[in-house]
Write a structure and sequence with these properties.
The protein is of the alpha/beta class. The protein folds into two domains: 239 residues, Rossmann fold; 213 residues, Class I glutamine amidotransferase (GATase) domain (Rossmann fold). It has 16 helices and 28 strands. The strands form eight sheets. A seven-stranded mixed sheet has the order 15-13-16-18-28-27-26. It has a six-stranded parallel sheet with strand order 2-9-1-10-11-12, sandwiched between helices. The longest helix is centred in the first third of the chain and has 20 residues. The N terminus and C terminus are likely disordered.
């Protein structure tokens, strides 16, 4: 493979868009694997997702906030994570509105009814970010969102086929065979696209397969014959591939996979955010982590985590409606460990006031004798500190910090500890291995658990191993020669269109792929 040598004024780099038949088909994993595979070849690789809807985010070194999946993909590529890799981040606060983070900074809110009106400016910003990356990297690997066959959203789309047409990118579609119906899903995705979009879809990739690939061969051959596109590979089901998930809906894919003597219950709030805070706990030997909405599970756990949320006041109401407030009160009375992170910390206070001039005040859980006002401004930082001699690093993304308690409590990072109740606004703290193991031992002692740390690889090492296994799977199970041909040379010009209606014997007319100019004029 060739690497472009013109560094002063390089031409647009090679590129590829990885789309999926559904959400959670494995697009993020495939892109991460491709990033690591190409980085091993000595190429400068950048991930890109024009628009990401996720409440799992992270703060980059330059202070920009991006989706957790693109941060992980940048780590896989050996690139410094930056805002251009995820220019538009939507953080849903309810089913009807989202907060928009544009190039790493707050941009505003978009109710669902105003979404179409606000999309043009975001599309332009995303296109500019992609162009910027393509002039700085040898390869840009783009991740689509949801499915390109969501035809109700096609007008104004700049994440899937709209992005492909703007950037003249080849597209491969990933199908999750574990869901069933993968051949219909892949063929149907292609057939639902109009002919100009179809001209960019150059192949398929089957994901999460368990079993003998030879059993799939007739279906793979038939799919290629019917669509005129190759199946580039069949990726196997990979165990322990859950770290750094961007999709809150995917929570639970790993929660029953761990067994141990220290039972951790994470309250599954309706608008849970930064759920990846507990990934490192689940990866610790002997620790069993479970997301739950059951007060009995909260009562029986050794440790309870009240996590971050994008809707603090609404989720406070949910806690009371579901009896979680009583379960937490009972734990507090017994001095059993509770950890509040981010908004979970805020909910433990006596009262919470919204950030408006005449803000609404609601009662908190009352376990921490102080109050908090949710500011209109936003704190975004990457703090570091120590706890009992152990170095801790993390990141902050929040509106408002609780005032110090009315009584004297032990400092804990930026928060406090008192008799089993722990609070902090810092995310990602458990990725600091020595701190995590030391703190868990203290929490286990408070719970009366006999758990002790047994060592093993650190969390960063486990993440690196996961990324290497992704890349190994790509190298072993994907036609990388054909894949690289797409990345370097773009979509073939002779891909046939596919008609939605079966039984028409008319020969289809070849179509020409639209380039960036036609796509821009038609959006």
């Amino acid at each position: 493979m060739t690497v472009r040598e013109e560094r002063n004024h390089p031409p647009p780099s090679g590129g590829l868009l990885v789309a999926g038949t559904t959400s959670d088909a494995g697009k993020s994993t495939v892109v991460a694997g491709l990033c690591r595979w190409l980085a091993r070849k000595g190429l400068r690789v950048a991930p890109f997702k024009a628009q990401n809807m996720s409440n799992n985010s992270v703060v980059c070194a330059d202070g920009a906030e991006i989706g957790r999946a693109q941060w992980l993909q940048a780590v896989a590529a050996g690139a410094e994570p930056e805002s251009a890799m995820n220019p538009v981040l939507l953080k849903p606060g309810s089913d009807r509105h989202s907060r928009v983070v544009l190039r790493g900074s707050p941009w505003g809110e978009l109710p669902s009814g105003d979404w179409a009106a606000g999309r043009g400016a975001l599309a332009d910003a995303a296109s500019d970010a992609l162009t910027e990356l393509r002039h700085r990297y040898d390869v840009v690997l783009c991740e689509g969102g949801g499915s390109p066959a969501e035809i109700n959203l096609r007008d104004g789309d700049y994440v899937n086929m709209g992005l492909a047409r703007r950037g003249d990118l080849p597209v491969i579609v990933v199908g999750d065979i574990d869901r069933g119906g993968v051949f219909a899903a892949m063929a149907g995705t292609l057939a639902l696209l109009d002919q100009s979009d179809q001209a960019h879809l150059a192949g398929f990739l089957v994901n999460k397969f368990r079993g003998d690939v030879d059993l799939l061969r007739p279906g793979l051959d038939s799919l290629s014959e019917l669509t005129g596109r190759p199946v580039l590979g069949v990726l196997p089901w990979l165990e322990q591939a859950w770290l750094d998930s961007e999709d809150t809906l995917a929570l639970g894919a790993w929660e029953t996979a761990t067994e141990g003597t220290l039972r951790v219950a994470v309250i599954r709030l309706p608008r849970i955010a930064n759920a990846t805070d507990v990934d490192a706990l689940a990866a610790e030997p002997g620790v069993a982590v479970e997301f739950t909405t059951d007060p009995a599970t909260v009562a029986a756990a050794d440790l309870v985590v009240l996590p971050d949320t994008r809707a603090t006041v609404d989720d406070m109401t949910w806690l009371r409606t579901h009896g979680m407030d009583r379960a937490l009160d009972n734990r507090r009375a017994k001095a059993l460990p509770i950890l509040g992170i981010g908004s979970g910390y805020q909910m433990l206070t006596t009262e919470i006031t919204s950030g408006e001039a005449e803000g609404q005040t609601v009662a908190g859980l009352g376990l921490l004798p102080t109050s908090v006002r949710l500011s209109t401004g936003r704190t975004v930082a990457r703090p570091h500190g120590t706890w009992r001699g152990h170095t801790v690093t993390g990141y902050e993304i929040h509106h408002g910090t609780p005032a110090p308690p009315d009584t004297v409590w032990e400092p804990f990072l930026d928060g406090y500890h008192d008799n089993g109740l722990w609070t902090t606004m810092w995310h990602g703290i458990f990725e600091s291995d020595d701190f995590r193991r030391s703190w868990l031992r203290v929490a286990a002692s408070q719970a009366g658990s006999e758990w002790i740390p047994t060592g093993g690889p650190g969390f960063a090492a486990q993440r690196e191993d996961m990324l290497d296994r992704f890349a190994d799977a790509v190298a072993e199970h994907v036609d990388t020669t054909a894949l690289w041909r797409l990345i370097e040379h773009g979509t073939p010009d002779d891909l046939p269109p596919v008609r939605l209606h079966v039984g028409n014997n008319d020969q289809p007319t070849p179509v020409t792929r639209s380039g960036p100019r036609e796509a821009n004029e038609g959006r």
